[in-house]
Amino acid sequence: MQRTLRGIAFPAIFALVWELTSRFGILKFEFLSRPSDILMAGWIGLLDGSILLATWQTFEAALFGLVLAIVGGILTGSILGLSYATERVVGPTIEALRPIPAVALIPLSLLLFGFGLPMEGMIVTYACFFPILIATIHAVRGIEPRLHEVAKVLELSFAARMWKIILPAALARINVGIRVAVGFALVVAVTVEIIVNPRGLGYSLVMAQQSLRVDLMYAQLLWLSIIGYAINAALRTLRTSAPSLQYGGRS
């Protein structure tokens, strides 16, 4: 409780000073709004559903891309982790694609899919794919070799080996890549919406700025920070509540 109070003390003092200085005319910047006006604009946006709708649209694209990246990253990473020969063939292509920023693919994705969820989701998928892929490759190669020998003796199919051997043994390390990808998903989704896609919180931010609704713009930024904090808190809770998933395979 004390830690929480210490954490909110500085933002509360900062908001109070901001409010008082703006009310007494000390702050006269045209594009600064009072904290009270920001909170009121955010409250109205929540009540009329506009912020919640934009939030759902952003989360829809982020989740869509994240799920595709998780499935593709784990499957591809498992194949490359099990086969050094395949990794040597495919590895140079992966290393060539990995440095390309996800937002650089916006023009291509726009040509292929047009505006909307698929375009945004594909860019999120690209951004989230590589952290999961790299984590999965190293996780699979860190599995106890005797487990692979058991799978060969039992003549398990690839699907059975994935379900019975790879995922249980490597999930903890794969989870690291997934946690990194979760952060990428929201950031990339909002960025795409700000740049080009007319949907979601990013587009709503741009519309508030262009219509000079400074209070609403700050309210949406505050809402984004709350969402980011909530996601990080949920990931920390998940990690601490499932300690058995923090370790796996061979150290």
Describe the structure.
- With 251 residues, the chain is mostly helical.
- It folds into two domains: 1-32; 34-245, MetI-like fold (Orthogonal Bundle).
- 80% of the residues lie in helices and 0% in strands.
- The chain is built from ten helices and no strands.
- It has helices at 2-23, 35-47, 50-82, 84-97, 106-113, 117-141, 145-153, 158-195, 200-210, 214-241.
- The chain is elongated and about 80 Å long.
- The chain starts with a helix and ends in a 10-residue tail after the last helix.
- Mean pLDDT is 82; it is low at 243-251.
Which secondary structure elements does this structure contain, and how are they paired or packed?
Elements: H1 2-23, H2 35-47, H3 50-82, H4 84-97, H5 106-113, H6 117-141, H7 145-153, H8 158-195, H9 200-210, H10 214-241
Summarize the structure.
With 251 residues, this protein is mainly α. 80% of the residues lie in helices and 0% in strands.
* CATH class placement of the largest domain: Mainly Alpha
Number of helices: 10
- Average pLDDT reading: 82
Q: Could you state the CATH homologous superfamily of the largest domain?
A: MetI-like
Q: According to CATH, what is the topology of the largest domain?
A: MetI-like fold
